[in-house]
Design brief:
The structure is a single chain. By secondary structure, this protein is α+β, with helices and mostly antiparallel strands. Strands 1, 2, 7, 8, 9, 10 and 20 form a 7-stranded mixed β-sheet that branches. Strands 17-16-13-14-15-12-18 form a 7-stranded antiparallel β-sheet. It has a 3-stranded antiparallel β-sheet with strand order 3-6-5. Strand 5 and strand 6 form a beta hairpin. About 45% of the residues are buried. It binds dihydroflavine-adenine dinucleotide. Dihydroflavine-adenine dinucleotide (FDA) binds next to helix 1, helix 2 and helix 13. Its cofactor is FAD.
């Protein structure tokens, strides 16, 4: 069977590309080994799908994509904007709301987005082949030949949208990277992103006691900082602030945590020394932070005695602990729980406007398999929609 376009992967990017190519009158086959299309959409955003971020194409939003070449993503992102996806969502009568920081979530279940995309695919005449393994891909003179578990097919254009390595349990594979290598495209280093951080046994034992506690914090790595919730878990640290910084963190590095954002801790401690001189430092900290956290910080400081007896030097140590608490993760939870994969198909080998492989006519890479990774908060879906849309205009 021959198609104009074959899309590998029925995720966010693949479905968008298929819709757009189908709307242009191209015959399109989408192949996926999973039982359902859009499995990650279904579980995304805690089941509510944070389907875009209204800041994705603003001046600041542009810095919210990580890549060896962050400028690569700008063309697609500026041509297919959050407004365009919002218009599609509205057309399908899907109710949504802004949760925080420009993040748009469905009011109802995330499956509505899948239903919408599947409906659009049907409308565009796209054929979907699920539970289908891709056994071999080769280049012919006029396009591509694929041996699938259920058929042998050919196509003029091949769009690779098989995503990253995150959550192998859900069917994530390295297939897209292998295919890129097979066709001579370069890869950048891949690693888990938007992932909880883990600690060595000693530190973990202490942190474990705080499991379930969440607090607002600024988490820093070098010049990068995120102010969001920080969550202590029985495995280490999680919560949006940690997930965000994890994409910047490298093994061996420490992170710094400001536990009292927008507060002058020095002033607070000096006032406590004056007004409540007979209390222990833990108690003072416990007035502004969860008690168990205050206890841990107090133990780490190991400064017994009443605050009224503290010298300025001692107070400065407490202040540093509150405003610049240094923690050294040993690793991350890895691809098992990472929301995304950083790195991937090297953007130097792709055309920024169309996502086409520069050296292989008819071959395209879109979505997470490409070395473009967004911040938490709808940026990754916006990249999937935008890159899928871009390829769908030309493939
Ligand atoms: P995606 O991974 O969606 O699709 C790839 C498809 O290829 C899958 O259907 C897979 O089965 C198929 N495939 C892989 N290997 C194959 C093979 N060898 N043969 C055949 N098929 C193969 N982002 C966001 O913006 N907002 C959010 O709310 C969330 N929430 C979220 C929660 C969780 C738990 C995770 C893990 C991730 C998120 N994300 C997110 C990230 C978002 O899900 C991700 O960026 C996009 O799904 C990427 O879309 P792609 O289409 O590129 O890959």
């Amino acid at each position: 069977m021959h198609y104009d376009v074959i899309v590998l992967g029925a995720g966010a990017a693949g479905m968008m590309a298929a819709i757009e190519a189908g709307k242009r009158g191209r015959s399109v086959l989408v192949v996926d080994h999973a039982d359902h299309a859009g499995d990650k959409i279904r579980i995304s955003g805690g089941g509510r799908c944070n389907f875009t971020n209204i800041n994705a194409t603003t001046e600041r939003g542009r810095d919210r994509f990580l890549s060896d070449n962050p400028r690569f993503a700008l063309s697609a992102l500026s041509r297919y904007t959050p407004d365009m996806f919002i218009a599609l969502v509205r057309r399908h009568g899907i109710a949504f709301h802004e949760k925080t920081l420009g993040q748009l979530f469905c009011d109802g279940p995330a499956t509505q987005i899948n239903t919408m995309l599947l409906g659009e695919m049907r409308g565009a005449g796209v054929t979907l082949s699920l539970k289908t393994a891709i056994e071999r891909v080769s280049k012919t003179e006029t396009g591509f030949e694929l041996l699938l578990s259920n058929a042998s097919v050919t196509a003029e254009s091949l769009i690779v949208a098989t995503g990253g390595k995150s959550i192998p349990k859900m069917g994530a594979t390295s297939f897209g990277y292998q295919l890129a290598s097979q066709f001579g495209l370069r890869l950048t280093e891949t690693r888990p992103g938007l992932v909880p951080l883990t600690f060595e046994t000693g530190a973990l034992e202490k942190l474990k006691a705080l499991s379930g506690i969440a607090t607002d914090a600024v988490v820093k790595h070098g010049k990068t900082a995120f102010e969001e919730a920080l969550l202590f878990t029985h495995r280490g640290l999680s919560g949006p602030a940690i997930l965000q910084i994890s994409s910047y963190w490298r093994e061996g590095d420490a992170i710094a945590v400001d536990l009292l954002p927008h507060r002058d801790a020095g002033e607070m401690l000096r006032a406590a020394r004056k007004e409540t001189p007979k209390v222990q430092v833990q108690t003072v900290i416990g007035n502004v932070l969860p008690k168990k956290l205050a206890q841990l910080l107090g133990e780490e400081l190991d400064l017994p005695g009443m605050i009224g007896d503290f010298s300025d030097k001692k107070l400065a140590l407490v202040e540093a602990q509150l405003k610049n608490w240094s923690l050294k993760p040993v690793g991350s939870e890895g691809y098992r729980t990472a929301e995304v994969t950083l790195g991937g198909v090297d953007t130097r080998d792709l055309d920024a406007k169309t996502m086409a492989a520069r050296a292989v006519p008819g071959l395209y890479f879109i979505g997470e398999v490409v070395d473009v990774t967004g911040w938490l908060g709808g940026y990754n879906f916006q990249w999937a929609w935008a890159s899928g849309w871009a390829a769908g205009q030309v493939a």
